[in-house]
Amino acid sequence: MNREFGRYAFGIPLTPEAVQVLKRLPRNGGHVFQWRGARIDDCNTLACQKAVKAARVGPCRWHDHLRHGWASWAVQSGVTLQQLMLLGGWRSFSMALRYAHLAPDHLAVAAGKIRLKRRTKTGTSKTPTRQMH
């Protein structure tokens, strides 16, 4: 599936389940997102809102419900922020960072990798042994 943001288009890989859902959708024409047979390329128009109402899935705004929801679910499912940025088409990493709080388990894994090291008199590092109390 190709999606356009600004003046560029890029492909989006779909899961087999997503492809099956799209294939089952009833439509009259070659596009998934359409209104009365015409392609919808701006999801914030009156025509799009009418389509949402007719499909009884509203209220729905592209960014708030579709893109933000997808990004939230992706991070909660283990997608890294770098992968999210590439998949979602964000131009800066700071945009993907908005979803970092949705992956606290990943931070716990990262924190678990940190080990305390002490410097010896010779300058080498030494991991302290754990003492049982």
Structural commentary:
- The chain is α+β, with helices and mostly antiparallel strands and 133 residues long.
- It has helices at residues 16-24, 46-55, 62-76, 81-88, 93-96, 104-112; strands at residues 2-5, 8-11, 34-35, 38-39, 118-119, 125-126.
- It has a two-stranded antiparallel sheet. Strands 3-4 form a two-stranded antiparallel sheet. A two-stranded antiparallel sheet has the order 5-6.
- The N and C termini lie far apart (58 Å).
Quick take:
The protein is α+β, with helices and mostly antiparallel strands.
User: What level of helicity do the residues show?
Assistant: 40-55%
Anisotropy-based shape: elongated
The gyration radius over C-alpha positions equals 23 Å
The tally of strands reads: 6
> What's the helix count?
6
Determine the mean pLDDT: 77
Major sheet: order of its strands? 1-2
SSE-based structural type: alpha+beta
Largest sheet: 2 strands, antiparallel
Number of domains: 2
Roughly how many Å apart are the termini? 58 Å
Report the uncertain regions: 1-7
List SSEs in N-to-C order.
EEHEEHHHHHEE
Strand content: 5-15%
Layout of strands and helices, then pairs:
Blueprint: E1 2-5, E2 8-11, H1 16-24, E3 34-35, E4 38-39, H2 46-55, H3 62-76, H4 81-88, H5 93-96, H6 104-112, E5 118-119, E6 125-126
Antiparallel strand pairs: 1-2, 3-4, 5-6
